[in-house]
Amino acid sequence: TDKRVYNFSAGPSQLPVEVLKEAADQMLNYKGSGMSVMEMSHRSSTYQKIFDDTKATLKKVLNIPDNYKILLLQGGATQEFTNIALNLMANGKSDYIVTGSFSGKAAKEAAKFGDVHIAYNGKDNDFTEIPTQDQLDIREGVDYVHLCNNNTIYGTEWNYVPDTKGAPLVVDMSSDILSRPVDVSKYGVIYAGAQKNMGIAGLGVVIIREDLVKPHPANIPVLSELDTMLEKDSMYNTPPCWAIYMLGLVVKWIDEQGGLEVMKEKNEKKAKLLYDYLDQSDFYKPHAKKDARSNMNVTFTTPSKELDAEFVKESIAAGMTNLKGHRSVGGIRASIYNAMPYEGVEYLVNFMKEFEEKYK
Ligand code: PMP
User: Fold this and answer.
1) What Gene3D superfamilies does the entry give (predicted)?
2) Which residues are within 8 A (CB) of 247 and not within 5 positions of it... i.e. 6 or more apart?
3) 90: annotated binding-site residue?
4) What is the CA(356)–ligand 1 centre distance, in A?
């Protein structure tokens, strides 16, 4: 069928239809260049303009101050787990706040290269919470403190910026960047894989305070040298050209929608619809504690594993997809990023009501 489904994938995830249409329109012949963006030299003036416009629009939309630089790199967020540790641990010490799977992976990677202290570990409460400031055991004088702003798998999200005792804060925003305004100046580094709110896979976006880019240590892989990448404006080698072009279309779309205040408003409205329904139901059980809930990934269970599986099965038949929770936690997960329309969540909630009626 040619009908598009409501796609609740955690990533790669649904893109705005307007963005897909624009990419399709430009597919064979980008603005009279006679070729697709996929076929273009990254050194051409046509591509350079796409690249520069993408960065400029991202800077505008996210309100990035002038003393921050944008790097557009290959390798997704996981590559940045490595790059951050290799480049920023000048004194060999960093603290990691572990609130889920990806922050755990980031910490594990960094521990290969230095003295990594786990300032908090949410494992004991099944990653249902975000720690309060007084739960954080942050050391004095570390090179940086790392956290993951939105835990894609567990469905929890930070709603404050913790005090790090003066150390720069490095934040993985893979699954909530561009979903709401943030004060970039509070962070040392913001990084994200692009395949949720920023477009498609293959691109890692790094927003870094200029003074944190130091001469790289000897003997690290050249593609991990953030100073080299900055000096070459992310084009030491061929960048992920198509993914950067798609990011450009996505940030232009966000800008046209009215920017991040509008995204925030829409995302809060969608999440509220779903959480309000979950809260009044005795059938469904949300995973995250109330004050830690994510507006991007909503996680919950039905009364049994069998019903979870049935839910997923029937949701597919009803025209929805990717509602199965991550294999490590089970249950149901609805990822409702910027591109998910309100009607998609409404449709899901109606389905949930019917399912509850049928099986309660
Ligand atoms: N961090 C977060 C919060 C994520 O959700 C993901 C992937 N879903 C990653 C890191 C890993 O990203 P990538 O697959 O781009 O390496």
Assistant:
1) Aspartate Aminotransferase, domain 1, Type I PLP-dependent aspartate aminotransferase-like (Major domain)
2) 54, 58, 72, 194, 198, 199, 203, 205
3) no
4) 32
